[in-house]
């Protein structure tokens, strides 16, 4: 919990509070049961990345002798993290056990190797011999001078071998779980209407006597261990190497990063645990986490659905957009009026369709796009390749430093370059995080620019589960300034002025502060003054201080912050005019929207940028204004629904207790369902007219 004296909640503690909200979804009995298992997987995956990135950063600070960061001792923050994580792990175990018990009520039984009946043993024995054993590489630890290298995030079974007749005859072995080639969950034959699942870990435990049959032991036990390494990497400054080479080498170096966490089965014999810690020099590691029998719970994200539709979210089809007619050219539709798409409620295929149309349209001369994270089998990339083969000039800005997507982005860079695309490295020292697409089409002997600006990535896979917005526009003012952004990316030595777009790192911060000050002026004049923000993260202390000042001036501030919120709302004399909610539900809230009251002529912006130092100062980010009154109304309605949520909205406060928002409304409002219903109504009404 933050102290009022500090004015800020530590970002790491706030992030852990966000992950607690994920755990709340796993514990919520109104959420379909198998979806709750997925939320347990998401919680675990989030925590893994948190250790690889954020905890690793603090450990670097400690090692570098940095006394304070953001006003706090890194060592103190690490201690807070450790204490909080242990509590969260205990909560996780409780939720997991509850979910397992509820699965039993649904005739789904997760059983281990000691719970198999005779028929199941035959099945597991056959599966082990045919599928599993060929993939295993057991390593006898006692015979090795050095402990084998443990890779980050992989699951290992530490094996304890002993002889019941000779208690001193003990040996240790190590087996890596082959989850890269085999499923973590194995479905056993049904018994009547009951479904049985065994984990790969337990299939291996079942097969231990076979694996070690030639050795003089008759007792075998296996305990899961997992090690997490620092995921940050340093890019060397060797001028003889290309940027691609440097990134490629850094990806390999990442796998050898400093150990930041070691998780182990708390039932492991002390002699085996001491052996592993000593051999890996981990005895003094702060983050030694005693865990349960199974690790890498992120695999629960892919738990089999078993054909039980009532245990998963109902699959709702994405809606069509009333303003996009499948029988006419998308260019004609966009030229007629701006079009806002709401993902995943409306279909993402329109973005791919526009690129495909552009690829074969003889009037289209060029396509420019920024790519940060794309789908594994990307239709966006396929459409760009098709455009190149049809003679269009394609320029792609591919961000090679998109964390954990570096390798994939190097692959796409090579593929597009081989086809003849112009690839831009971006800007030295700045990540390109803006989501921009621009198509140049010659109409009546004049160039016409068609622009798409989004809050989310060009990724059709995440567009099914991320709540984002995308704007198609032929607005000349916006399009001209998006062209300036691409011109800057092509020629970094040229800088431009932007009257309409907010562009980081050049003037977004400055213009946001100017608009906050304008609301303060209006409030002091007794006029209506408000700011509505929807962000993933609010961390930047300068922006927080400006919001505090606005609150003190009487500006009404309402925010939806999905993740980290370092601002403390509701403090008398500081932030009593600020309300903050966080919505966690079926879809990941991802869009960023800024609204400033502006004395009745509200200013609306859509953006790729959170209010963090990295977004405002160290990245190329864009916030685009919304000028079309109809689309302003669409966004207003969307935000109103979000602010009225009384089902999935949690209150962000100093306590960090994630209490659900309770409103006076008798109607239960669940924003994501309400928004889909509203858009569906528009779709049906448009079909009637």
Could you characterize what this model shows?
The radius of gyration is 27 Å and the shape is globular. Mean pLDDT is 91; it is low at 233-255. The protein contains 17 helices and 26 strands. Helix 11 (406-419) links the parallel strand 12 and strand 13 (422-424). With 689 residues, it is of the alpha/beta class. Helix 2 packs antiparallel against helix 3 (74-105) and helix 9 packs parallel to helix 10. Strands 14, 18, 19, 20, 21, 23, 24, 25 and 26 form a nine-stranded mixed β-sheet that branches. Strands 10, 11, 12, 13, 15, 16, 17 and 22 form an eight-stranded mixed β-sheet that branches. A six-stranded mixed β-sheet has the order 2-4-3-7-8-9. It folds into three domains: 4-311, polyphosphate kinase like, CATH 3.30.1840; 330-490, Endonuclease, Chain A (2-Layer Sandwich), CATH 3.30.870.10; 502-688, Endonuclease, Chain A, CATH 3.30.870. 40% of the residues are buried. It is 37% helix and 22% strand.
Descriptive keywords:
globular; alpha/beta; 37% helix; Endonuclease, Chain A; 3 domains; nine-stranded mixed beta sheet; eight-stranded mixed beta sheet; polyphosphate kinase like; 689 residues; 17 helices
Quote the average pLDDT. 91
The geometry reads as: globular
CATH fold node name of the largest domain: polyphosphate kinase like
Q: How many helices does DSSP assign?
A: 17
**Count of discrete structural domains:** 3
| CATH architecture call of the largest domain | 2-Layer Sandwich
Estimate percent helicity: 25-40%
């Amino acid at each position: 919990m933050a102290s009022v004296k500090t004015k800020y909640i530590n970002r790491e503690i706030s992030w852990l509070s966000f992950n607690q909200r994920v755990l709340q979804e796993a514990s919520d009995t109104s959420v379909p049961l198998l979806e709750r298992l997925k939320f347990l997987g998401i919680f675990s995956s989030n925590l893994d990345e948190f250790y690889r990135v954020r905890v690793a950063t603090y450990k670097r600070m400690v090692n570098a002798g940095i006394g304070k960061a953001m006003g706090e001792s890194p060592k103190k923050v690490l201690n807070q993290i450790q204490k909080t994580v242990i509590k969260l792990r205990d909560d996780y175990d409780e939720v997991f056990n509850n979910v397992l018990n509820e699965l039993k009520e649904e005739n789904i039984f997760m059983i281990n190797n000691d719970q198999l009946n005779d028929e199941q043993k035959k099945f597991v024995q056959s599966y082990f011999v045919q599928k599993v054993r060929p993939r295993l590489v057991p390593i006898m630890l006692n015979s090795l001078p050095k402990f084998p290298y443990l890779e980050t995030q992989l699951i290992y079974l530490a094996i304890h071998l002993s002889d019941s007749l000779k208690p001193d005859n003990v040996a240790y072995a190590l087996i890596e779980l082959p989850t890269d080639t085999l499923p973590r969950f194995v479905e056993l034959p049904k018994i009547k209407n009951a479904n049985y699942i065994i984990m790969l870990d337990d299939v291996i435990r079942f097969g231990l006597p076979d694996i070690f049959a030639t050795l003089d032991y008759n007792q075998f036990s296996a305990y899961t261990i997992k090690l997490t390494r620092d995921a940050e990497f340093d890019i060397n400054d060797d001028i003889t190497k290309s940027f691609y080479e440097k990134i490629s080498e850094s990806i390999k170096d990442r796998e050898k990063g400093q150990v930041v966490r070691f998780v182990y089965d708390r039932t492991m014999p002390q002699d085996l645990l001491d052996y592993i810690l000593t051999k890996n020099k981990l005895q003094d590691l702060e983050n030694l986490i005693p865990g349960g029998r199974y690790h890498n719970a992120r695999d629960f994200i892919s738990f089999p659905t078993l054909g039980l539709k009532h245990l998963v979210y109902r699959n709702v089809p994405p809606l069509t957009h009333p303003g996009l007619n499948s029988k006419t050219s998308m260019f004609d539709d966009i030229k007629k009026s701006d079009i806002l798409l709401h993902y995943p409620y409306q279909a993402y295929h329109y973005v791919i369709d526009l690129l495909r149309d552009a690829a074969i349209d003889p009037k289209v001369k060029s396509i420019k796009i920024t790519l940060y994270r794309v789908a594994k089998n990307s239709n966006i990339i396929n459409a760009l390749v098709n455009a190149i083969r049809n003679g269009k000039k394609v320029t792609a800005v591919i961000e090679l430093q998109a964390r954990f997507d570096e390798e994939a982005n190097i692959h796409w860079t090579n593929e597009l370059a081989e086809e003849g695309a112009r690839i831009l490295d971006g800007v030295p020292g700045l990540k390109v995080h803006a989501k921009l697409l621009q198509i140049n089409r010659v109409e009546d002997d004049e160039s016409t620019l068609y622009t798409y600006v989004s809050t989310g990535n060009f990724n059709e896979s995440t567009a099914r589960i991320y709540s984002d917005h995308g704007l198609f526009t032929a607005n000349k003012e916006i399009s001209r300034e998006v062209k300036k952004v691409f011109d800057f990316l092509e020629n970094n030595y040229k800088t431009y002025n932007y009257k309409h777009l907010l562009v980081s790192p050049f003037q977004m911060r400055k213009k946001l502060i100017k608009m906050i000050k304008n609301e303060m002026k209006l409030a002091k004049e007794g006029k209506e003054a408000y700011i509505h923000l929807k962000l993933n993260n609010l961390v930047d202390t300068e922006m927080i201080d400006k919001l505090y000042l606005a609150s003190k001036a009487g500006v009404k501030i309402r925010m939806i912050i999905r993740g980290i919120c370092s601002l403390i709302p509701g403090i008398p004399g500081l932030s009593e005019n600020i309300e903050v909610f966080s919505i966690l539900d079926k879809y990941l809230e991802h869009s960023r929207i800024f609204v400033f009251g502006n004395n009745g002529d509200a200013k609306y912006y859509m953006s790729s940028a959170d209010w963090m130092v990295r977004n405002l100062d160290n990245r190329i980010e864009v916030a685009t204004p919304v000028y079309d009154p109809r689309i302003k109304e669409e966004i207003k309605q969307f935000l109103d629904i979000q602010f009225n949520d009384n089902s999935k909205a949690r209150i962000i406060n100093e306590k960090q207790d994630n209490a659900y928002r309770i409103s006076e409304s008798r109607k239960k409002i669940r924003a994501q369902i309400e928004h889909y219903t509203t858009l569906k109504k528009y779709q049906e009404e448009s079909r009637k007219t």
